Write a sequence for this structure.
């Protein structure tokens, strides 16, 4: 976190000419690190509240079903999304995966995954989908 803040301030000076005093940059970097450590400590005390389904149920005839799952890479502060599109017979139609920067709690991360999946199916022109 500290290196990221130092890098960010260096870029601000190089590309925009916005220079900060060294002590100010250092104080911001330390504050970012402390905030990050506080959030990690808080997150580790939370229990995930995710309910998993044990079986897949097909959509209505003529519809497609989109299943989405999100995983969290705490060591790299990233999230990964996996999405699968299947028809009403359970046959594979399409899939996609994506990794993005950022790490959020489970509910927000899953919501980001659904948002990413909806954007994907819109971009490929698929309609009549159940999520």
């Amino acid at each position: 976190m500290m290196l990221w803040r130092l890098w960010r301030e260096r870029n601000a000076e190089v590309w925009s000419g916005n220079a900060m005093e060294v002590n100010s940059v250092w104080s911001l970097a330390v504050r970012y690190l402390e905030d990050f450590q506080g959030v990690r400590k808080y997150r580790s005390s939370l229990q995930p509240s995710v309910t998993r389904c044990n079986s897949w149920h097909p959509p209505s005839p003529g519809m497609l079903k989109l299943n989405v799952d999100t995983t969290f890479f705490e060591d790299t502060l990233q999230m990964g999304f996996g999405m699968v599109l299947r028809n009403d017979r359970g046959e594979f139609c399409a899939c996609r995966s994506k990794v993005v920067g950022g790490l959020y709690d489970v509910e927000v991360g899953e919501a980001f995954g659904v948002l990413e999946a909806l954007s994907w199916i819109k971009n490929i022109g698929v309609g009549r989908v159940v999520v």
Notes: Residues 22-45 form the longest helix (24 residues).
